[in-house]
């Protein structure tokens, strides 16, 4: 009841409803999007004594952390975080007292509640259900942002058309675009990037088009063997560009969603309107291939799970990158990235309809083993996490859309700690992590194959050097001649590869707080954001607790409790859910998100369980092989 009352109070107090005349607001700082980054930006500006308002396109707060992603999932080095982020990563979704929850036990609904409580505590108003439409500028200064009233539908999908145009106008001294799409920065006239740069542009070896992976001998044609019949849905022809070439593609999006077989909490997943099994024929042929290739029933079941529901991360489903086909469509993300609102709605809805149709196909097609058809039929969406949208998350996982072309471009060279940054606002650390961009036809001699392209994870979650790197202030600020009073802490300036590492929620949160501090200082100094006193700014960031530098000689990597010994007792504490003093693959997946690939190596006897002897042997192996991650991931 407290949660509902709090949400309603914010909604009723700060939502602008359709009216004959536009609602006019004047504030010091206007933040676009109540993502974790936007929330921290608004609080930081408010703490600096500035009036602030957040305008949020949906009815919810918390962005991806309020939609299924967990705060610590993309934070491999807690010691590299600072400011408000450092505390929130451990506290979001946790009970005020009592037993500390594991990452897998956290609820996105509780995380949303915690963000609402944080906004209420700092008296930050949020105007819901409004999206940016256009901006008024005088020379290079953004004066007023215009917003349309555009409520999301009952299943949490944004609309193609607004209910009312120009329903809200916000005049502000400073603006912060904290959305995942960069819609405000585009409306403000700032240059941006979409897609993949060529390897030559920034001398990034792994940039641009990549070698194909998951090559699979299945027929891609509507009439098997007849190329003139056209390609099946879910696969496309190769555009023919060479490895390393630039193209407009970007990595896959997907939902981070929850399912259950418990009738008390199960919500039905119904087929989409116009469902046709023919649209999933490629899936059927892939299932037939797997069934023939995999004789072990349990291993086959695991491969089928990878198709639908996907890969279980921390009790929520994610994309299974090792599968040719998984729980999200490929080849359409780029249509969303810089598309108009009609494009965005179409792509968002396509992800939802694809999941609904795939669920129907996997429980009805005769090529799927009957035992797995029955298993799929028992699954529905879980009503405990997104009850307001029939179990569907309200936020699609937009891994990358627009990227500002700012004063500094974060590239792979930053990720590899090969650059010198003089204006850090916080630290980042993660591997270069891209999900596949395309599923294409590949011809090798007389053989016709289907393969994915664009999938890579360089360096694992700790990154290729296992050392954090700084995010520069220049990366969150546009060129001064384009906009002098805008900061961009989410769609910041980066290459495709640089963003693939830095695009994590903890980094967005850190950058959000730093952008709020910068906005307040720019107002006080009456200067463009590009010309604030950097010595004073750095001092303000330090006073706010931001971690700006990493000294490997002094700083040590770690997570909360990271000094705890990596022994079998700790593994059981993290993973053993049934108290049998063993860790099965499912428990490992939940307790060690991102390390599914490692389980089979530790499970030396292929029993499907890790015991103490095996885990001790693995720790000995790690101690003797400092580059064990690279060795095991490469398969050598």
Automatic annotation (TrEMBL):
Protein name per its UniProtKB record: Protein-xanthan lyase
Keyword Kinase: no
Family annotation (Gene3D superfamilies): FAD/NAD(P)-binding domain (3.50.50.60)
A molecular-function term among this protein's GO annotations: calcium ion binding
Signal peptide location: 1-20
Metal-binding keyword on record: yes
Boundaries of every EF-hand domain copy: 590-625
Originating organism: Blastopirellula marina
Taxonomic classification: Bacteria, Pseudomonadati, Planctomycetota, Planctomycetia, Pirellulales
Entry-linked InterPro entries: EF-hand-dom_pair (IPR011992), EF_Hand_1_Ca_BS (IPR018247), EF_hand_dom (IPR002048), FAD/NAD-bd_sf (IPR036188), HdrA-like (IPR039650)
Keywords on record: 4Fe-4S, Iron, Iron-sulfur, Lyase, Metal-binding, Oxidoreductase, Signal, Transit peptide
């Amino acid at each position: 009841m407290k949660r509902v009352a709090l949400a309603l109070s914010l909604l009723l107090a700060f939502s602008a409803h359709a009216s004959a005349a536009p609602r006019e607001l004047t504030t010091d700082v206007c933040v676009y999007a109540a993502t974790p980054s936007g929330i921290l930006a608004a609080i930081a500006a408010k703490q600096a004594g500035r009036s602030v308002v957040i305008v949020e396109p949906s009815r919810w707060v918390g962005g991806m952390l309020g939609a299924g992603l967990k705060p610590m999932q993309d934070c491999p080095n807690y010691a590299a975080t600072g400011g408000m982020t450092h505390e929130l990563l451990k506290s979001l979704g946790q009970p005020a007292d009592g037993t500390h929850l594991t990452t897998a036990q956290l609820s996105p609904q509780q995380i949303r509640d915690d963000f609402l409580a944080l906004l209420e505590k700092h008296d930050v108003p949020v105007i819901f259900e409004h999206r940016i439409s256009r901006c008024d500028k005088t020379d290079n200064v953004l004066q007023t942002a215009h917003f349309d009233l555009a409520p999301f539908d009952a299943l949490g999908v944004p609309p193609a058309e607004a209910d009312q145009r120009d329903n809200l106008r916000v005049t502000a001294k400073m603006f912060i675009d904290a959305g995942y799409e960069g819609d405000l920065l585009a409306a403000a006239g700032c240059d941006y990037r979409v897609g993949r740069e060529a390897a030559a542009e920034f001398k990034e070896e792994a940039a641009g088009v990549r070698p194909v992976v998951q090559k699979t001998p299945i027929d891609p044609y509507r009439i098997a063997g007849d190329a003139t019949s056209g390609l099946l849905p879910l696969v496309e022809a190769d555009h023919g560009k060479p490895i390393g070439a630039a193209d407009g593609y970007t990595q896959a999006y997907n939902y981070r969603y929850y399912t259950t077989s418990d009738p008390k909490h199960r919500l039905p997943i119904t087929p989409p309107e116009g469902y046709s099994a023919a649209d999933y024929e490629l899936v059927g042929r892939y299932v037939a291939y797997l069934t023939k290739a995999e004789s072990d029933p349990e291993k086959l079941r695991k491969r089928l799970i990878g198709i639908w529901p996907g890969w279980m991360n921390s009790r929520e489903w994610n994309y299974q990158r090792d599968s040719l086909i998984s729980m999200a469509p490929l080849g359409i993300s780029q249509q969303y990235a810089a598309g108009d609102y009609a494009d965005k709605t179409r792509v968002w809805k396509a992800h939802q309809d694809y999941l609904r149709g795939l669920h129907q196909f996997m429980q009805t097609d005769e090529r799927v083993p009957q035992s797995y058809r029955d298993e799929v039929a028992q699954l529905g969406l879980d009503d405990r996490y997104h009850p307001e949208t029939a179990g569907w998350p309200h936020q699609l996982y937009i891994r990358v859309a627009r990227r500002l072309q700012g004063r500094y471009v974060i590239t792979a060279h930053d990720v590899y700690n090969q650059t010198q940054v003089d204006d850090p606002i916080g630290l980042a650390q993660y591997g270069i992590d891209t999900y596949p961009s395309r599923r294409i036809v590949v011809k090798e001699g007389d053989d016709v194959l289907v393969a994915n392209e664009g999938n890579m994870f360089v360096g694992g979650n700790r990154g290729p050097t296992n050392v954090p790197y700084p995010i520069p202030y220049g990366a969150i600020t546009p060129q001064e001649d384009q906009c002098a009073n805008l900061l961009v802490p989410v769609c910041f300036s980066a290459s495709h590869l640089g963003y693939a590492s830095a695009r994590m929620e903890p980094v967005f949160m850190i950058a959000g707080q730093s952008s709020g501090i910068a906005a307040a200082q720019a107002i006080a100094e009456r200067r463009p954001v590009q010309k604030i006193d950097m010595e004073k700014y750095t001092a303000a960031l330090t006073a706010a607790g931001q971690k700006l530098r990493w000294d490997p000689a002094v700083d040590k990597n770690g997570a909360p409790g990271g000094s705890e010994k990596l022994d079998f007792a700790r593994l059981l504490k993290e993973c053993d859910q049934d108290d049998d003093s063993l860790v099965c693959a499912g428990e490992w997946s939940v307790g060690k998100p991102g390390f599914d690939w490692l389980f089979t190596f530790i499970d030396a006897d292929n029993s499907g369980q890790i015991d103490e002897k095996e885990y001790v042997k693995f720790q000995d192996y790690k101690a003797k092989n400092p580059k064990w991650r690279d060795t095991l991931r490469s398969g050598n």
